[in-house]
Amino acid sequence: MKRLLAAALVAFVATAHAAHDGPASLDAALAQGKREHKPVLIDFQAVWCYSCYYMASHVLNGKEWDDLNTKIVFYEADADKPADQAWMKKLNVHFLPTYVAIGPDGEELGRILAERPRETFYPEVAALLSGDARLSKQKADAAKGSMAAVADVLDTYQQRYEGKEGMAWFDTLPPMVRNVSDKDKRVALAKQRLLLLQANGAKDDKGIIDAATKVLAGNIGCERPYVLDDLVSASASQPADARKALLQPQKAPYEQFLDTQVFTASPACADQRSAVLTAADLDAALDDHAAEQAVLRKAIDLSRDRLHGDLRSDRNLADNLRVYLVRAKAGDELDTLEKQLIAAYPDDYVYNYRYGRRLVEAGKAAEGLPYLEAAAKKAYGANEITVASFRVKALRALHRDDEARKLVAKTVAAQGKAFPEQAKKLQDALNS
């Protein structure tokens, strides 16, 4: 997904999880769960993940969090570390944060994708831990004719990014169940979501447009920004008039979504960033640039109001503000904010890297390189390669090619075995 994307291990995460002295690895966590007859709750996150900032500061703390930790083995998986990234591939995790519950017997109990408000997250976790979301149970209930179970199974496949597998399972249901379930609105919507997943995987714009339009006609709540984003992206190659005719009907329902579920005192949807950026992308696709700027400025002003000048009070909001300023091309405001973010969050590589990268991309290699070098001191794993790639770009722009080659060799030696694809791209950057 584009927003991953869409959102940490830094100060807020450390504070939120300080009371939890967890296992050293996911393998150790699973062994502990089996030994203690407890489920394991895995939090797949990363230091650059804005939705993870939200969960760390707003949800994974307080009494509910303390109570939950007495019932589970908790493991915080870092997407930038080799062993945890291997588990992401094994469990088919594509979105951060993703929370995966594994029973003491090793079977997945279910998963939760993306950030959630506190009042939504804990009931969802409780449902997972009850075993009702276990795929084997859902399938058994579906085969007996439960329409809710059929929809649950299809939704589970969607969460696991297994569109083809989900539709193949549906085809194995008894004809009587299949024929009746097709008339069920929730099942019909779940099938379209799987078809959308398949079309995205195949990069089939026509299939994406067809499935996304049908999904958007349903009651999809906080998923609306992601599905509309698929529709906007897939329609980019259409003639302008045809694209506007396709997208214009989405404008009114999306504005209602923003007004009732995002721009409120207590938002029902926690991922404000995706909601705002999708709105701006929709307006841009409709050539309504005044509306595009208006929604961005509204989000900028709202974020500033809620931060009260304290960037450390809510890292998710602070990082959202940065992205809104990037999208609005508010260069001077962004320069000021990024320097403030570097000062506010000095314990990781992220903001030095982002500011340094932006300077290098703007043709200011000499100004950007010191920030990238500062970022390199805190980088590790996959993000060490990411930082190195822009240091190389800056060094080459400054005609310091020997230093660039030495940096690539050092980085590949340290991280190449664990991250071969990223390491190859870094080596290729020397020849680009």
From TrEMBL:
Q: Tell me the Gene3D superfamilies matching this sequence.
A: Glutaredoxin
Boundaries of every Thioredoxin domain copy:
5-130
Matches recorded under InterPro entries: Thioredoxin-like_sf (IPR036249), Thioredoxin_domain (IPR013766)
Q: Does the keyword Signal apply?
A: yes
| Keyword list, A-Z | Signal
Q: Which domain of life is it from?
A: Bacteria
Matching Pfam families, A to Z? Answer: Thioredoxin_7
Which residues constitute the signal peptide according to the record?
Answer: 1-18
PANTHER family to which the protein is assigned, alphabetical: THIOL:DISULFIDE INTERCHANGE PROTEIN DSBD
Tell me the protein's name. Thioredoxin family protein
Source organism: Luteibacter flocculans
